[in-house]
């Protein structure tokens, strides 16, 4: 096959031959360029393509010449590429003798004939040439091995010794020779060359250290680990001299240099050595000076414009844990890096994603180690350091910092769904965090494993607050946990996976509720950090007092508040939500909705997310009364009512001072929340100030306050200042009295004016808080529409959302108001009206829905804004879609029956409603309706289109203006072009329609002016008319 292809190429036409040869030579020469490139993938690809090319082209002689020349290339990465290519070519073409290639290498790279400055390259060429012969795999088949060994001995006789490793390249040459020719360079041979049988020994350490420093400086800009360094480490392990090499060459050699390339090389060598070391060696290197210097580098590199090696170390650790299957070695690495702290703060991030590669056994041991360090930290086993510029912290603060990051690390293990964890481990971590956040052990109990260990240092309020927040976030994460089986085996793409439950179907939160009950029932063994009052204890024990208890604890933003709300919400969701639904309207759902609405009034993003999550869990149980409570909050008509239930609190004044903040992460979250609120309020206040200034100016130029005028006249009369005579002047005493009176009067007036401004600012601030609260409440509406789109209760959202949109379109243009309007409009149109899931079981509500349709269309015709009209018309189409429902299974067999299916729609009544709207559109000069609205109606409901076609045809001539007549033509044209309409009007009805249209067009054609729609209709009539018989 290949021979025929070559023959065809040889017999190609003459005019193309020259170009083809040049092109082939260009491709052939590019192979050698690619062999010299630093990218290993490019070099390997070039080797393969070169061999395939040589099998079809006779270019062996030139190939050997180029490959032998490249063995002494000045570029370090090129020499292995040419050596590999030479070995592969010799392996593929066995008819070429190894002796001939060896002669080429000897002649080209003869150390006795080359110039002195090229002597080093010549030795490299000889070594890589011999390496190519070895890689060909043919040395065992021929008798050339003796000649090659004699050739290597000849190199030594020329004055070049393999033991003269004064540079990294020379050392690399020696190490490659040891790897490729272990049988040749045995210890006896090495002793003759070096004077000792090993490379790494006490005498060679100074020389090796200098070579390592040179290698570090050579890759300063590349930020990589030189291959010679890793090869030297491997050799130390092979020669059983690792400890000597690490302690003397690295710690006492490289780390004695100033921070820079030498230190970075040591850190990279540490990361690269992890897969090569045993458990004992890992513990040794991860608790020594290299780790200490690495920690100092990480801390000092936090400043901007500093080189950061931490991302590289994370890759080293991640690759090691992913490729290692030994739990003991994995645990040694995790403990080593976790023990590195800077005055109690961890050097590695608290949320360290490398834990996802731990084996289950290693993960369990690592969690046990974290818990042990939390309870009884063994400071002598920790690698704690302090930098020069940092202030010395006391042991108490170090301990608190350590407790915080340990809890954060435990929580991150649960948050990361990629971690190979079991259900017992998840529950164990959750119980541990929960216990130490809200309780303390008094006496060990067999029923409560957490009481077995006591804290060596009691928790202060700040640290306990961090634990409370961590548990709060952990509770939310557990609510979103997929099943462990789904995580391990992978669930189907379209399969709906349950979240927040264990393998037996029990919710994770319910397990914690049961655990909390156990703790509360063990007062002899467990002590609560915030003991319950008798009323609270009674509320916990009794279901009927539970919600009153939540209301009592709601107003206190403390650790107790977080605990009470968390547990009570859990109980409501897990216990009462799982109860049998014998009552038609379970009251617990309505109370839960009230609680969530109260929580949403708090300026906290975390609480907002929790409310959204909890509401998504109780969506299936929401009743009409609960949904009405949400809609009442959003109803703009109830904003001005004095008995409105919307009460929004502003807690900005009660926020903590900077010196009372807990930890850095918590501070950032609080600051971000506060900054957003403050920025909004500042903008509002600026707007208010501008409005107030304008109002004051209007007051100045407008009518003066009559009461102020009277008071002013009274003051002037008392001092006879209103006397019109110019002869009599006021004396100094009278003038002073007049000034005092005027000053007092204007001061009082200024106070009144400032009071009015303060009242106005207060009202504006309250208005802003209410707007923000309503935006949060829209979260609940959005969740309900997304989760319960097929519920009949969704129909109750249509009118309230339309009212919000209608009122928002006509209100002020404040940015916050526009955001609220945009959010409500998106939920209504994109998530409600356009959802593929909708209520398909109308039941006995047909009459109610038909009344709603008439009400919506009546309102539509009375509107003045087309934008608002569009939403009302979309709502009408949504109601028709709900009334129609889905066609039965047997109706889908015949397409025509499927088109005629209208479900529970009263076609005559609905057609009359839309016919009236169409007539209004065609008879009014300024109508909010548009042709596109009726086009959507025709496209979505062909049956209604057929019913309205006659009216549309009549309006071609009866339209109030030419514009309306043109729009009527467009509607008729779109309808007649519809395939569904053509199927419904087949036969005589289609012919009758075409005749009517033709008649109307003929009447229109006699008019002097013809619009675009009319013209299009006239041209289309000729096309549609022949189809009257179809």
UniProtKB/TrEMBL annotation:
Location in the cell: Nucleus
Basic and acidic residues composition-biased segments: 650-659
Broad class of where this protein is predominantly found: nucleus
Acidic residues biased stretches: 660-703
Keywords: Nucleus
SUPFAM superfamilies: ARM repeat (SSF48371)
Pfam families the UniProt entry points to: DNA_pol_phi (PF04931)
Gene Ontology CC annotations of this record: nucleolus
Region annotated Disordered, chain positions: 638-704
Top-level lineage group: Eukaryota
UniProt GO molecular function: RNA binding; sequence-specific DNA binding; transcription corepressor activity
Similarity remark: Belongs to the MYBBP1A family.
Protein known as: Myb-binding protein 1A
Protein species of origin: Dicentrarchus labrax (European seabass)
The encoding gene: mybbp1a
């Amino acid at each position: 096959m290949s021979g025929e292809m070559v023959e065809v190429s040889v017999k190609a036409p003459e005019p193309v031959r020259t170009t083809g040869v040049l092109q082939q030579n260009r491709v052939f020469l590019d192979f050698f360029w690619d062999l010299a490139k630093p990218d290993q993938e490019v070099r390997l690809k070039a080797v393969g393509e070169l061999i395939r090319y040589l099998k079809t082209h006779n270019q062996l002689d030139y190939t050997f010449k180029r490959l032998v020349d490249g063995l002494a290339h000045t570029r370090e990465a090129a020499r292995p590429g040419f050596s590999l290519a030479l070995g592969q070519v010799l392996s593929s073409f066995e008819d070429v003798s190894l002796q001939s290639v060896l002669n080429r290498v000897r002649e080209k790279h003869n150390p006795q004939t080359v110039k002195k400055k090229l002597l080093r390259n010549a030795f490299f060429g000889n070594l890589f040439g011999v390496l190519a012969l070895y890689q060909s795999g043919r040395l065992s088949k021929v008798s050339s091995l003796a000649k090659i060994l004699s050739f290597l001995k000849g190199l030594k006789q020329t004055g070049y010794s393999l033991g003269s490793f004064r540079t990294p390249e020379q050392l690399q040459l020696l190490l490659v020779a040891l790897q490729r020719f272990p049988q040749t360079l045995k210890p006896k041979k090495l002793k003759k060359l070096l004077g000792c049988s090993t490379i790494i020994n006490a005498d060679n350490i100074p020389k090796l250290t200098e070579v390592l420093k040179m290698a570090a400086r050579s890759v300063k800009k590349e930020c990589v680990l030189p291959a010679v360094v890793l090869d030297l480490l491997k050799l130390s392990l092979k020669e059983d001299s690792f400890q000597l090499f690490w302690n003397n060459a690295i710690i006492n050699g490289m780390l004695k240099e100033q921070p820079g390339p030498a230190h970075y090389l040591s850190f990279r060598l540490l990361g690269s050595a992890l897969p090569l070391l045993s458990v004992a060696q890992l513990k040794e290197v991860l608790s020594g000076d290299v780790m200490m210097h690495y920690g100092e580098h990480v801390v000092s590199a936090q400043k901007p414009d500093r080189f950061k090696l931490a991302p590289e170390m994370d890759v080293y650790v991640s690759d090691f844990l992913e490729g290692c299957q030994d739990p003991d070695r994995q645990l040694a690495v995790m403990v080593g890096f976790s023990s590195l702290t800077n005055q109690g703060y961890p050097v590695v991030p608290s949320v360290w994603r490398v834990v996802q590669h731990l084996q289950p056994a290693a993960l369990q041991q690592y969690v046990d180690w974290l818990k042990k360090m939390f309870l009884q930290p063994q400071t002598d086993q920790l690698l704690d350091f302090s930098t020069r510029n940092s202030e010395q912290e006391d042991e108490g603060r170090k301990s608190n910092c350590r407790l915080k990051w340990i809890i954060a690390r435990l929580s991150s293990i649960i948050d990361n769904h990629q971690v190979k964890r079991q259900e017992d481990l998840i529950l164990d971590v959750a119980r541990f965090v929960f216990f130490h956040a809200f309780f303390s052990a008094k006496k060990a109990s067999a029923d409560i494993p957490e009481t077995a260990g006591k804290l060596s240092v009691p928790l202060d309020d700040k640290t306990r607050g961090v634990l409370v927040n961590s548990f709060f976030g952990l509770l939310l994460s557990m609510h979103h946990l997929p099943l462990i089986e789904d995580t391990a085996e992978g669930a189907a793409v379209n399969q709906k996976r349950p979240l927040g439950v264990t393998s037996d179907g029990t919710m994770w939160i319910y397990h914690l509720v049961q655990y909390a009950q156990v703790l509360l029932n063990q007062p002899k063994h467990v002590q609560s950090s915030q003991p319950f009052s008798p009323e609270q204890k009674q509320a916990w024990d009794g279901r009927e007092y539970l919600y009153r208890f939540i209301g009592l604890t709601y107003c206190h933003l403390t650790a107790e508040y977080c605990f009470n709300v968390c547990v009570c919400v859990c109980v409501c969701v897990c216990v009462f939500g799982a109860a049998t639904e014998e009552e038609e309207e379970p009251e617990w759902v309505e109370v839960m909705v009230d609680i969530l609405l109260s929580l949403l009034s708090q300026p906290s993003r975390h609480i907002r997310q929790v409310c959204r999550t909890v509401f998504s869990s109780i969506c299936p149980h929401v009743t009409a009364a609960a949904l009405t409570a949400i809609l009442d909050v959003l109803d703009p008509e109830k904003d001005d009512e004095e008995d409105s239930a919307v009460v929004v609190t502003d807690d900005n004044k009660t926020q903590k001072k900077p010196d009372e903040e807990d930890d850095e992460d918590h501070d950032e979250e609080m600051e971000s929340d506060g900054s957003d609120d403050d920025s909004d309020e500042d903008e509002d206040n600026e707007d208010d100030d501008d409005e107030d200034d304008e109002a004051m100016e209007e007051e100045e130029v407008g009518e003066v306050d009559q009461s102020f005028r009277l008071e002013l006249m009274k003051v002037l009369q008392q001092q006879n200042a209103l006397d019109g005579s110019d002869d009599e002047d006021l004396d100094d005493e009278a003038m002073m009295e007049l000034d005092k009176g005027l000053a007092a009067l204007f001061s009082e007036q200024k106070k009144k004016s400032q009071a009015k401004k303060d009242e106005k600012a207060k009202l504006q601030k309250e208005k802003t808080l209410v707007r923000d609260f309503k935006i949060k409440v829209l979260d609940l509406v959005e969740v309900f529409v997304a989760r319960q789109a097929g519920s009949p209760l969704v129909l109750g959202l249509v009118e309230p959302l339309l009212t919000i949109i209608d009122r928002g379109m006509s209100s002020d243009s404040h940015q916050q108001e526009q955001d609220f309007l945009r959010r409500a409009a998106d939920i209504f149109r994109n998530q409600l009206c356009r959802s593929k899931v909708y209520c398909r079981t109308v039941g006995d509500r047909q009459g109610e829905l038909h009344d709603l349709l008439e009400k919506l269309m009546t309102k539509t015709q009375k509107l003045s804004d087309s934008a608002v009209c569009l939403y009302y018309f979309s709502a009408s189409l949504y109601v028709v879609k709900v009334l129609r429902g889905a066609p039965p299974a047997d109706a889908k067999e015949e397409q025509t029956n499927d088109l005629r299916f209208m479900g529970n729609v009263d076609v005559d009544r609905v057609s009359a409603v839309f016919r009236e709207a169409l007539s209004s559109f065609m008879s009014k000069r300024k109508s909010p309706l548009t042709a596109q609205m009726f086009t959507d109606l025709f496209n979505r409901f062909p049956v209604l289109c057929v019913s309205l076609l006659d009216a549309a045809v009549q309006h071609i001539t009866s339209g109030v203006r030419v514009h309306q007549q043109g729009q009527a033509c467009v509607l008729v044209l779109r309808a007649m072009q519809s395939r569904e309409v053509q199927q419904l009007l087949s036969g005589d009805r289609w012919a009758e329609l075409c005749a009517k249209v033709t008649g109307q067009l003929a009447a229109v054609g006699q008019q002097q002016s013809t619009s675009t729609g009319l013209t299009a209709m006239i041209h289309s009539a000729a096309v549609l008319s022949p189809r009257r018989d179809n």
